[in-house]
């Protein structure tokens, strides 16, 4: 990409999906304008850019909107193939495996997390927690398989799966306070625990991830809204 290249990211400071995009843009070394959105009073720009879901993040590249965090991550990697590191593996099989795990994270981790956080009864909460812990255990195996003994899912450097999980990290770190359980521990997920320590000190993570204490307080005010979003 050259010449008059303009990137605008519509997001909110607390959005884990927007954090994914910030991480990817930072890793690629791309400059962009971040436009904070008020989701209680959605802007015309957001509504016209993402008329289907009306959600953040939206990346607007030279006036053209791209929606959904994983679609945006792949777009950034493809549109800026020659800029910065590759986010997805080049080998088609490894690429498919990375896509599989990102889909797994979105399909299997997020809903139980919301259930555990918003549950009214103990039984529902316990079920949510049980599912979070089972999913995290599976991701421990995925990290072992994808990293092949190297520091990240992407190997020596942060890749697509690292970004997808890493964007959620501030919420995951707040899990103990919000859901009553620690997702990672030394006995069951030693690899993921070490991965978290490595990930949070990256410049891209420091730039993109919100402060955990501030996020936890904010999430508590959004409990009812989040409960409704599961039923949608
Ligand atoms: N699957 C979407 C999820 C995006 C999402 O849920 N965004 C939330 C903010 S964290 C949102 O915009 N919510 C507004 C609404 O639901 O009206 C992605 O990966 O981008």
Can you lay out the helices and strands and say which pair or pack?
Blueprint: E1 7-11, H1 16-28, E2 33-36, H2 44-49, E3 58-61, E4 64-67, H3 69-79, H4 92-118, H5 122-147, H6 160-166, H7 169-173, H8 175-179, H9 190-200, H10 203-208, H11 212-221, H12 223-231
Parallel strand pairs: 1-2
Antiparallel strand pairs: 1-3, 3-4
Glutathione binds at residues 15, 17, 39, 54-57, 68-69.
Report on the structure:
The chain is α+β, with helices and mostly antiparallel strands and 232 residues long. It is built from 12 helices and 4 strands; from the N terminus they run βαβαββαααααααααα. Strands 2-1-3-4 form a 4-stranded mixed β-sheet, with helices on one face. The radius of gyration is 17 Å and the shape is globular. Bound molecules: glutathione. The site of glutathione (GSH) has 9 residues, from loops.
Instruction: Give a count of the beta strands, DSSP E runs of length 2 or more.
Output: 4
- Strand arrangement, major sheet: 2-1-3-4
The computed structural class is alpha+beta
Number of helices: 12
Task: Please state the overall shape, judged from the principal axes of the Cα atoms.
Answer: globular
Overall average residue pLDDT: 95
SS strand fraction: 5-15%
Task: Characterize the main sheet.
Answer: 4 strands, mixed
Order of helices and strands: EHEHEEHHHHHHHHHH
Q: Which consecutive residue ranges, at least 5 long each, have pLDDT under 50?
A: none
The radius of gyration over CA amounts to 17 Å
Helical residue percent band: 55-70%
Domain GST C-terminal: 91-223
Domain GST N-terminal: 5-84
GO cellular component, one term: cytoplasm
Family: Belongs to the GST superfamily. Tau family.
């Amino acid at each position: 990409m050259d010449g008059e290249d303009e990137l605008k990211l519509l997001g909110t400071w607390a959005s884990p999906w927007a954090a994914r995009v910030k991480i990817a843009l930072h890793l690629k070394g791309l400059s962009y304008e971040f436009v904070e959105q008020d989701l209680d009073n959605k802007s015309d720009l957001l509504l016209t850019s993402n008329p289907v879901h009306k959600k953040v993040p939206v990346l607007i590249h030279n006036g053209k909107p791209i929606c959904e965090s994983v679609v945006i991550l792949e777009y950034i990697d493809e549109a800026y193939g020659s800029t910065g590191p590759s986010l997805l593996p080049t080998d088609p099989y490894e690429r498919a495996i990375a896509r599989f795990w990102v889909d797994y994270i979105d399909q299997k981790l997020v809903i139980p997390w919301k259930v555990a956080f918003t549950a009214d009864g103990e039984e529902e909460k316990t079920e949510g927690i049980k599912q979070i812990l089972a999913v995290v255990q599976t991701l421990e195996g995925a990290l072992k398989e994808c990293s092949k003994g190297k520091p990240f899912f992407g190997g020596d450097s942060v890749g697509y799966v690292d970004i997808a999980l890493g964007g959620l990290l501030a919420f995951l770190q707040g899990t103990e306070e919000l859901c009553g359980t620690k997702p990672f521990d030394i006995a069951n997920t030693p690899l993921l625990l070490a991965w978290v320590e490595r990930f949070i000190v990256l410049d891209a993570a420091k730039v993109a991830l919100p402060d955990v204490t501030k996020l936890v307080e904010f999430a508590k005010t959004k409990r009812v809204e989040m409960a409704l979003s599961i039923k949608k």
